[in-house]
Structure formats: C-alpha cells, structure tokens
Design brief:
Elements: E1 8-9, H1 10-17, E2 25-29, H2 33-47, E3 57-61, H3 67-75, E4 84-89, H4 96-107, E5 113-119, H5 127-135, E6 138-140, H6 147-160, E7 164-165, H7 167-175, H8 181-195, E8 200-201, H9 203-209, H10 218-226, H11 230-242, H12 247-251
Parallel strand pairs: 1-6, 2-5, 2-6, 3-4, 4-5, 7-8
Helix pairs in contact: 3-4, 4-5, 6-7, 6-8, 7-9, 7-11, 10-11
C-alpha cells in the first residue's frame, strides 16, 4: 500500500532541511509571511551556490506572469550552476487557466531546476494541489492561533540560540504580543541584545524590554483558565485591561 503524503509544518521542515536531499518542487503555503520568507531564505542558502545567484536564480510573481512563462523558466538549463532555482511568489493570484498550464510540469519536473512556489492558499481537493504534494514537500506556514502556540514557538527559537526563559517570563511575553511570528521574532532579537551574555531570561527583563503590543483575546483567557494556569490567565487579563477590551466580554 502506497503511503499517502501529507503537508509538513514549517518547524518540522526546518529541523530536517540541513540533512535533506534536494527536491525538484517545493510548495510553501499559508498566511504567515514571516515564516514563508524564512523557508525561502533557508532553501536558497541550502541549495544555491553564491556564484549562481546572479545567473541561476529567478523570481516570478503570479500577478505578472503566465503559466507558460513559469514552465519555460523552470525548463531552462542552468548557466553556471548544476541547477537553477525558480521562485514563483503569489502563485494563487494566477488565473485558473494558467495554474492548469503548470500542472503537467509538476508530474515531470526538470532535473536541473528547483521550483519553489509560494501561495497563501490552494484547495487541497484539486488535482493541482495533489500534483504538488506528489512532486515534493508542501510546507505549511500558519499564524499562531493563540498565546500558547506562540509560547511554544518562542521557547523553541530561544533554545536554538542557547537561551532559556523562565515560565512566568514566557507567559508574560507571549500574552503581551500580537499573534504573529514577525512581531515575536523582533522582540526575541531585542531581548537577546538586552540580556547580553546571559543564558536565562526572567520576567523583570521581559517587562523592561518588551514593547507591549497585545492582541490577546477572550479565547486566550478562557484557554488559560481551562488549563488552570493562574499566572498566564492573570497576564492575559491584565493585558486585555491595558488594551481597553470590553469589560462585558471578559466577565462573560
């Protein structure tokens, strides 16, 4: 029985990229722009030699090209490198007929090209999506859905830098940030500079350093209460009050 392929989350993909073989097609999918750019950058660094960046690296945009132009670029031979990289941004802005033109290429991609397609969404029920997932990795880049998801990501990012963070500091940080990875990454950068050579971040350091830009919601509050995490629930509640959320919503 043939194992059915599935999309992978961005963090799973990045963990294995350094030791993974070159694929001929990648699809980067989702609404989180920061993560999509990070995947693109990682793929380029992993597979494109410096000398090939000028001659064997092409970026196309879905609202500017046709499907035949994408196929033509993907079928072109590399100039000085062993293979070329063709990036197609905003693929979902292509007309349906142009997307259909790309479909045959996915079933027989060029051995000398890495085609990287970036889109916000594609219908998983279509032949096109199934062709992508058969041709190579489909990488999901979704925004964090609550403060808990953001907390896990922040903790992992800090761990990769050799830095740990106290639980109360992590709860305070994640509940006082917008629910997007770009903002969180900026605050991690600021914190890393702020603590200098220290290897552990405490709550006082977070309070001193972080600009409060909160989008915590009543759902985050409900989740924290449901998990009986009093400290996180109070942090979310304080943040909601700071940002003048409706009292009636919090009471309800």
């Amino acid at each position: 029985m043939v194992e059915k392929k599935a999309a992978v989350q961005h963090y799973e993909f990045l963990k294995t990229l350094a030791n993974s073989k070159r694929e001929l097609v990648y699809l980067i999918l989702g609404d989180e722009s920061y993560l999509k750019e990070r995947i693109l950058s990682s793929l380029t660094k992993r597979f494109l030699a410096v000398e090939g960046r000028e001659f064997d690296f092409v970026t196309l945009y879905g609202d500017e090209v046709s499907g035949s132009e994408i196929v033509e670029n993907a079928d072109s031979m590399p100039f000085i490198s062993d293979y070329r990289i063709v990036i197609v941004r905003d693929f979902d802005l292509l007309k349906q007929s142009d997307q259909d033109t790309v479909l045959p290429y996915l079933t027989n991609p060029s051995e000398t090209t890495i085609l990287i397609v970036v889109a916000e969404k594609l219908d998983a029920r279509t032949k096109l999506y199934k062709a992508f997932i058969d041709a190579g990795p489909v990488i999901q880049c979704r925004s964090p859905y609550n403060a808990e998801a953001l907390s896990r990501w922040i903790k992992e990012e800090l761990r990769d830098r050799g830095i740990s963070i106290e639980s109360s500091a992590l709860a305070y940080l994640s509940s006082h940030l917008k629910l997007d990875y770009f903002t969180a990454n900026n605050e991690i950068e600021k914190l890393s500079l702020y603590i200098g050579n220290a290897k552990t971040i405490n709550r006082k350091q977070v309070e001193s350093c972080i600009a409060v830009t909160n989008e915590s919601s009543v759902f985050d509050l409900q989740n924290a209460i449901g998990r009986r995490e009093k400290a996180e629930a109070m942090n979310v509640l304080e943040s909601m009050i700071d940002f003048n959320d409706l009292d009636v919503m919090m009471i309800t």
